[in-house]
């Protein structure tokens, strides 16, 4: 599986964590229940053998400059998203 982080080092810990992967990979991870599309449910993530802990999906969208079926960006946060009532 080809997944890459667009940030590295300890500085991202309190910041959003974007990851780029193939659209089909993201779809399969979601279908298999590994990547829940629920910002209230955490995902345990490791990159390069380094455990990053519990992360929460903030958004998922196509990578800039790519057509449908190209890579996607998956944006994680360290804390749960807060639901805002209208």
Specify the helix fraction band.
10-25%
How do the SSEs run, as a string of H and E? EEHEEE
Low-pLDDT runs of 5+ residues are 1-13
Class of secondary structure makeup = mainly beta
Q: What would you note in describing this structure?
A:
With 86 residues, the protein is mainly β. The chain has one domain (3-8, 17-77). The chain contains one helix and five strands. It has one helix at residues 23-31; strands at 3-5, 17-22, 42-47, 50-62, 71-77. Strands 1-2-5-4-3 form a five-stranded antiparallel beta sheet. A hairpin with a 2-residue loop joins β3 and β4. The longest helix is centred in the N-terminal third of the chain and has 9 residues, at 23-31. It is globular. Mean pLDDT is 75; it is low at 1-13.
Summarize the structure.
The chain is mainly β.
Tags for this model:
single chain; 86 residues; mainly beta; five-stranded antiparallel β-sheet; 1 helix; globular; disordered N terminus
SSE topology sketch:
Elements: E1 3-5, E2 17-22, H1 23-31, E3 42-47, E4 50-62, E5 71-77
Antiparallel strand pairs: 1-2, 2-5, 3-4, 4-5
């Amino acid at each position: 599986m080809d997944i890459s982080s667009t940030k590295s080092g300890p500085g991202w810990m309190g910041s959003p964590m974007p990851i780029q992967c193939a659209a089909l990979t993201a779809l399969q991870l979601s279908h298999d229940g590994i990547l829940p599309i629920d910002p209230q449910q955490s995902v345990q993530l490791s990159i390069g053998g380094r455990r990053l802990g519990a992360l929460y999906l903030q958004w998922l969208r196509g990578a800039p400059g790519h057509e449908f079926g190209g890579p996607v960006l998956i944006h994680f946060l360290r804390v749960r998203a807060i639901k805002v009532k209208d």
